[in-house]
Amino acid sequence: MSLDKQRKKELASKYTQTFRRMGIYQIRNTENGKILVASAMDLDGARNRLAFTQQNNVNSMSALQQDWNRYGGASFVFEELDEIKPDEDFADAAGLQKYKGELEALLDMWLEKLQPFGDQGYNKRPK
């Protein structure tokens, strides 16, 4: 294996073991106040996805599509609501599963608190 390939492999491995900020966020429509509340194992990645959709004026979130078409992507803002702080075990599979469970519980709490359903938001009401 060449030095470049070995270095790329090391960097890729290090990247996959790097903690990414996890948490709860909302995408808020500044025109009508409706929100979408969601969780992400990578908050920065979620923010980047919204920026990409705004730059390209496309939206893959079906719940938002009608308002996106009406108001445009610039009318939607990304806001972090909560973040999970890492322990030393975040890089292994058991640690990631633990964080997924914490994110689900945290998301349920925020959905209960904000009630982003119907006229107030884009989330589908849990069954």
TrEMBL record:
UniProt xrefs under Gene3D superfamilies: GIY-YIG endonuclease (3.40.1440.10)
CDD domains the record matches: GIY-YIG_LuxR_like
Domain of life per record: Bacteria
UniProt name for this protein: GIY-YIG nuclease family protein
